[in-house]
Design a protein that fits this description.
Helix content: 55-70%
Order of helices and strands: HHHHHHHEEHHH
Shape: globular
Radius of gyration: 21 Å
Number of helices: 10
Number of strands: 2
Largest sheet: 2 strands, antiparallel
CATH topology of the largest domain: Four Helix Bundle (Hemerythrin (Met), subunit A)
Number of domains: 2
CATH architecture of the largest domain: Up-down Bundle
Distance between the termini: 45 Å
Mean pLDDT: 77
Length: 248
């Protein structure tokens, strides 16, 4: 593993970092990524526990974003299953959806197997969560790096497909940065909000001042853009509209 000359850890979780930076910064996840990178350089034993924690954090964040909070008792495998079950795994215009779905499901099973292996390694060799014999055999940097690379791949996959979905169909937790097309349109159609010498962007004022009004305007914009019928907001109509968007 090459040394980093600029102060950064030598091992970089390129996929996870890139995926996280594509959306609103989730500071706790970013801190966990850095902790894992640093652990590989300084205390590789910690990589097993930190990799598992990172995957769990991303799954819980995804589920919270879509209004499906995780059960604290769920295992890592259960978290991953529940998270992927809410994803639209194929493009809407896929020429062979059945075969394509089967291929994606194989990929998901592979991810589950990766998580299983990661969890087994953690239980046998991780030292952060379990008391253990101080002189017991440990895995070395190569195995720790394998676990971190697996976590990097899983996190990048989960977070990217999740962020892609949110830009099309807002979840329970809406992020302003996800909807630049709506924000730009709203700002063109409305004058700047002036408070004394301050000039405030209309879409930001709406987002922070009245989140529910922002959500309603956003859903109407998406419905008009995608040729759907917009209905006044209700739990049932929101779920139906989300289903219509996913089916397109």
């Amino acid at each position: 593993m090459a040394d980093a000359s600029d102060g950064r850890p030598a091992f970089q979780m390129v996929g996870a970092r890139s995926a996280i930076l594509d959306g609103p910064i989730a500071e706790p996840i970013e801190q966990q990524i850095y902790a894992l990178e640093s652990a590989l350089e300084n205390v590789p034993d910690f990589a097993f526990d930190l990799s598992k924690t990172l995957v769990e954090s991303v799954c819980k964040t995804v589920l919270a974003d879509i209004g499906q909070p995780a059960d604290p008792a769920w295992s890592t495998l259960k978290l991953l299953r529940e998270t992927t079950s809410h994803f639209t795994l194929l493009p809407s215009d896929h020429p062979n959806p059945q075969k394509g779905r089967e291929s994606v499901e194989k990929t998901v099973r592979g991810l589950l197997q990766t998580i299983q292996g990661l969890s087994e390694l953690r239980n046998q060799y991780g030292m952060a969560s379990h008391g253990r014999d101080a002189f017991a055999a440990r895995l070395d940097l190569r195995q720790a790096t394998l676990v971190a690379q697996a976590a990097d791949t899983i996190v990048a996959f989960l977070y990217r497909i999740h962020r892609d979905a949110l830009t099309q169909t807002p979840g329970a937790r809406i992020h302003y940065e996800d909807h630049a097309d709506f924000n730009d349109t709203f700002d063109r159609d409305n004058e700047l909000v002036r408070l004394g010498e301050l000039e405030l962007i209309p879409s930001r004022v709406l987002f922070h001042g009245d989140p529910e009004a922002y959500r309603a305007a956003l859903l109407e914009f998406i419905a008009e853009r995608d040729g759907l019928v917009y209905e006044e907001e209700s739990a049932a109509s929101s779920e139906e509209r989300a289903r219509q968007v996913e089916e397109r």
